[in-house]
């Protein structure tokens, strides 16, 4: 993997893989986020969660999304060359639960330099979050905007 | 609009519109969120932002997403009958900036009861966040899971 600090648009190519490392879902963090932004009963209430279709407390999907984004931020996006995203598609495939260890990975799908603004390019990627057994619990298809070297 | 507390799967139908009210983007909140989750220079650094393609500080897209979700949570989803979402597609169409007043709206696109689990159904919707001039700055196409009355 190239130095994360040096990645311009030209450094990405289809098939490129970035291993993003892992984190353990923290019960207190999950709960604090859910209370603030997403207080559905199965995110914040142990008893209600046990009786729900999820069979126990689960992370807010937005917390999962943001934690994945943090992994991507550290291992794929770039403070010097990353310029945000026009949009993305995400899938919550399995509940995320406290104590789970989760592993992030990004695969570059395609790259395209802007015709109207050659100083930027678009990098489409699929990022996944997997549990210790390798099962993907979350997937995000993102288009990132990056500076070109000439930009 | 029906009482938000009473909405089961059967209460949704294509074309139904929910006006979600509005909020004003708060500079301090935007900055606090970006520092914690998304510290790209154009989200947290006034000078860097001024020199960026965005021409000034912008909200983290995740903050926009979460604020829109809060509007949906209060005016569309339901603590008693809402069961989360398998995934969604979102688009950041324009930067969100501090001081902007933003209006949320959801339009129901389609509804489908689960065949394997008739106690739940899927409600596909498109939600938008618009500025005072009516320009859409953010759009999310979501599939929500709701309890059926028989469930």
Report what the structure shows:
The structure is a homodimer of 151-residue chains. Chain A is an alpha+beta fold and 151 residues long. Helices cover 23% and strands 33% of the residues of chain A. Chain A has helices spanning 27-37, 41-44, 46-50, 61-75; strands at residues 17-24, 87-92, 101-113, 120-130, 136-147. A five-stranded antiparallel beta sheet of chain A has the order 1-3-4-5-2, covered by helices on one side. Chains A and B meet through helix 4 and strand 2 of A and helix 4 and strand 2 of B. Strand 2 of chain A pairs antiparallel with strand 2 of chain B, so a sheet runs across the interface.
Features:
homodimer, alpha+beta, five-stranded antiparallel β-sheet, elongated, 151 residues
Strand neighbour order, sheet with most strands of chain A: 1-3-4-5-2
Count of discrete alpha- or pi-helical segments spanning 4 or more residues of chain A: 4
Q: What is the H/E string of chain A?
A: EHHHHEEEE
What would you call the structural class of chain A? Answer: alpha+beta
Q: Which pair of chains forms the biggest interface, and how many residues does each contribute?
A: A-B, 32 and 32 residues
Q: Classify the beta-strand content of chain A into a percent band.
A: 25-35%
In terms of quaternary structure, the protein is homodimer
User: What composes the largest sheet of chain A?
Assistant: 5 strands, antiparallel
Question: Could you report the average pLDDT of chain A, rounded to the nearest whole number?
Answer: 92
**End-to-end gap of chain A:** 23 Å
What is the rounded Rg of chain A? 17 Å
Number of distinct beta strands of chain A: 5
Into which percent range does the helicity of residues of chain A fall? Answer: 10-25%
Low-confidence stretches of chain A: none
Global shape of chain A: elongated
């Amino acid at each position: 993997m190239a130095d994360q600090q040096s990645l311009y648009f030209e450094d990405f190519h289809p098939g490129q893989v970035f291993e993003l490392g892992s984190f353990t879902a923290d019960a207190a963090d999950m709960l604090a986020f859910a209370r603030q932004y997403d207080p559905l009963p199965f995110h914040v209430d142990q008893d209600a969660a046990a009786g729900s279709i999820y069979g126990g407390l689960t992370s807010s999907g937005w917390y999962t999304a943001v934690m994945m984004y943090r992994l991507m931020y550290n291992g794929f996006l770039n403070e010097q060359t990353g310029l945000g995203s026009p949009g993305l598609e995400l899938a919550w495939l399995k509940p995320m639960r406290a104590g789970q260890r989760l592993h992030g990975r990004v695969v570059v799908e395609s790259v395209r330099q802007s015709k109207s603004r050659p100083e930027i390019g678009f990098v489409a990627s699929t990022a996944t979050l997997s549990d210790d057994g390798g099962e993907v619990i979350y997937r995000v298809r993102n288009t990132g905007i990056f500076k070109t070297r000439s930009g």
